[in-house]
Amino acid sequence: MSFLSIITAASTAAESAAESIAETVAETAAEGGAVTSMVPEDFAFDYTMRVPVLSIILMVIALAVMIAVPVYLIIRMKNRFRFDVYALTFGLLAYMVGVGIIPTVIELLAAQIAPVKEFLSANTVASDILHVTLLIVFSFLAIFVCSRFSMRHSLRKNMNPEEANLPENKKNAFASSVLLGLGVGLLPIVTQGLSYVMSYLSAAISINQGQLISSVSSMLTEGMEPSEIQNGLNSMAEFIQTPSLEFLFLGTDLVFQLLTFLGVAVLIGIFLNRKAKTSMFKAVCVQLIFGIFFAVRATGVIKSVAVCEIIYIVIAALSLAAAWTELKTYMPDDLEKFLGKPDPTRKNGGPKNQPPHKMPKIVMPKD
Fold first, then answer.
1. How far apart, in whole angstroms, are the C-alpha atoms of residue 66 and residue 60?
2. What CA–CA distance (Å, rounded) separates 18 from 34?
3. Lowest mean pLDDT among 22-26, 80-84, 226-230
4. Where are the membrane-spanning stretches (predicted)?
5. Can you tell me the distance from the alpha carbon of 5 to that of 3, in angstroms, rounded to the nearest whole number?
6. Which candidate, 191, 247, 195, 190, places its Cα nearest to that of 74?
């Protein structure tokens, strides 16, 4: 939005500077210097507009929420269990493969088939539904597969060595599932949420400091097309007039998505470790509900951002509630350990700090 559109246009013009200057000279000769004599005030834009202070405050809150929630969960897990970096890495991998690589490859292959390409080009709703379906299906499969690999690395890292040898704890991977779910939800927060909010916050501060008119002047000097500048200013106006709550929702949406993935990962982990079919059933249901919502939202049926936010909250609550009930049934000790206070005698969730073991005194016999 806003500055991003103008910056993109500026980079495009910079790459073809010679062509832009030639077109500007030609237009100037034909219109009697109308282009080169333009000033920022000639564009249809009110330079006195400012981004509301409430919007900036909510951007900061969104930024804080996106950072605080994952950090809090990671620290809590670290203080109560052995921190398993493998599980977190597998979560990041699950998102990259299930949401990024596989759906993109399938869509590119489908675009090579002429009838399919024509159908999707003529039916944007069908294209959106296909895109969302691929994301939901393969993200779920990626979480499932990565959970299996993650368990092999974290079997004995989430508990004391003495506890790991007990038969009832040999398949315990609660911490692994939680960290994997955090990894799945953390990547979009870092790659999308934080970068977008930071760019919006920077744009808002620049606008309120009155730097926009000087930016337009420099673009005119560089020979950018007035139509491109006007399009950028139109985007800027939309950015300024955006309801303040939408900037908050930009961050909270991704946080609720993280919590949804967290619940699904825990449910899948319980199924893999305890063979609980109800856990897999609930995981599939949550993922299906999440996918239906995404598909409906992609079609533009739901216009209200507030309604979308409420649905996000409901789905995240359903996911966590399903995980909660399964944990109480199959992993009550881990749930109690996660909710309880950290043991001050333990370091990083590991074995208790014991005093150094004294070697027995050896008395040599006398001759």
1. 10
2. 20
3. 22-26
4. 50-73, 85-109, 129-151, 172-191, 254-272, 279-298, 304-324
5. 5
6. 190
Alpha-carbon span 235 to 101, nearest angstrom: 31
Which amino acid is it at 52? P
Nearest to 308 by CA among 239, 249, 254: 249
Please give the C-alpha separations between residue 83 and each of 257, 264, 308, 351, in angstroms, as whole numbers. Answer: 23, 20, 34, 13
Find where tokens 């043991």 sit: 343
Residue type for position 142: A
How does 14-30 read in b/e, with b if 16+ C-beta sit within 10 Å? eeeeeebeeebeeeeee
Tokens of 254: 């991704």
Token pair of 193, please? 């949420």
Dist. CA 93–CA 264, nearest whole Å:
16
Average pLDDT, the chain: 78
Tokens representing residue 3 in the block:
């500055």
CA-based torsion, 234, 236, 238, 241: positive or negative: negative
3-class SS of residue 138? helix
Cα separation of 24 and 346, whole Å? 71
For the chain, state the CA radius of gyration.
Answer: 28
Give the Cα separation of 81 and 176 in Å (integer).
10
**How many angstroms separate the Cα of 326 from the Cα of each of 150, 257, 264, 274, 314?**
20, 20, 11, 10, 18
Question: C-alpha distances in angstroms, 314 versus 221, 253, 255, 289, 322?
Answer: 51, 12, 13, 10, 12
Query: What's the token pair of residue 37?
Result: 């004599």
Distance of CA 209 to the CA centre of its chain: 30
Backbone angles phi, psi at 352, to 5 degrees: -65, 145
Q: How far is the C-alpha of 151 from the C-alpha of 272, rounded, in Å?
A: 9
Tokens 């998505």 sit at which residue? 257
Here the tokens at position 143 are 């979480």
DSSP string, 111-144: HTSHHHHHHHHH-HHHHHHHHHHHHHHHHHHHHH
Helix (H, G, I), strand (E, B) or coil at 346: strand
What's the token pair of residue 175? 């911490």
What tens digit of pLDDT does each residue of 295-337 get?
888 777 888 888 888 999 999 999 999 999 999 999 888 888 8
DSSP 8-state class, residue 225: -
